[in-house]
Model the fold of this input.
Amino acid sequence: MKIGNGSLPPSDELAATRSAIFPGESEAYASARQTLLAEEIDLRRQLARVAEHRRSLPPGPIIEKSYRFIDAAGAEVGLVDLFGEHNTLVTYFWMYGPERARPCPMCTNLLGPLDGNAADIKQRAALKVFGRSSVERQVAFAHERGWTELDFVQTVGDDYARDIGALTPEGDEYPALVVYRRERAQVRLFWAGEMSGTMADPGQDPRGAPDLAPLWNVLDLTPEGRDPDWYPKLSY
Done:
């Protein structure tokens, strides 16, 4: 197989070079772990292939609609104004509409770790969190959680949320991850998460790949795995 210009050795050959970390492995454990290691190598390569395919997408559609937003300084701005010094803008729409007493716990769980990485991400791309609640309300919750690096933006009206599929005609909210590319004064869609609920596998909640939330990635490493009936809360 190839990724980029380099040929890669078979994953089972690489897995065969494995050395036990602790003494006392049974033959059954060693064999099963080696097989799993080959699958993990394949998974890493698949993630690299998907990322390469994503980067190779043809130019997306130009965003023709004049969406308006309010930034943390209270200024009304357009989508192109949110890029700052970068030509790439990564956005996450979280479920914190004005009708909600508190934001979505799952969105909150994702944004916490994202805040910890935001300063690094913003060296390479602009990063904004969109919400339908006032920007003051969003920032107040961020202060409550101790978030210091995320930039919150209020959507003006509901056209944007509806157009990206984050707000249904019935008023239900959904999260949305969208990446834009700036070309001079124009903004194009680069990529958006499009795994809908109808694409979810049996017994699993809808989620994209790769999963951005560290919570689920860590739980996937445990013997118990993900509990399909357990979800994070805002407090315990």
Notes: Residues 27-55 form the longest helix (29 residues). The two ends are 47 Å apart (CA to CA). The CA atoms of residues 24 and 30 lie 10 Å apart.
